[in-house]
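Re: your question about DUF4183 domain-containing protein

S., sorry for the slow reply, the queue was backed up all week. Below is exactly what I fed in.
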Amino acid sequence: MPIVKPVITAVSTAPVASGGVITTTIAPSTTRFFAAVTAGDIGATVTTILAGEFTDDSGAPIVAFPAVTAAETLNVYINGVLQQSSLSTLTTASLVLNTTDISVGVPVTVEIASFSSTTSTITTQPTISAPTVTITT
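Result:
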C-alpha cells in the first residue's frame, strides 16, 4: 500500500511589538589625575610615571590608580592633547607612555569615566500582536 503524505502550504506573519517605553538613566562619574613629566620618568624605551607622582582633582596626592573596568573609559592627555589608547598602559601602580620623545615638565592628565551607574527599565510594557498563519492549500 503506497504512503500518501499531505502537502500543506501556509503563509505567516511575524508578531509585531508596539507602544513600549524603555527609560535609560546614565549617571557617569569622571575622575582625573594630573602630573608633570620629570627627568626620572623618561627611560630608555618608555616613559613611566608612577601613581604617586599624580594628584587628583582636589590637588591631593594619590597612592594608586583605580583599576579600570569594562564599564569605564580611559583617556590620556599629554600637553592637553588626547592620545590614542594604544600609546599608553595604565596599571594601579603607574602610567606607561610608549615614547621617550617627551619633554620634562609636560603635563599629563589621566581621565577615567565610569558608566557603571547606567540602568534601563521598561516603564511601559509593549503590546505584542499574535502571529497570523494562513493555510492556502
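The mean pLDDT is 92. The radius of gyration is 29 Å.

Happy to talk it through on Thursday.
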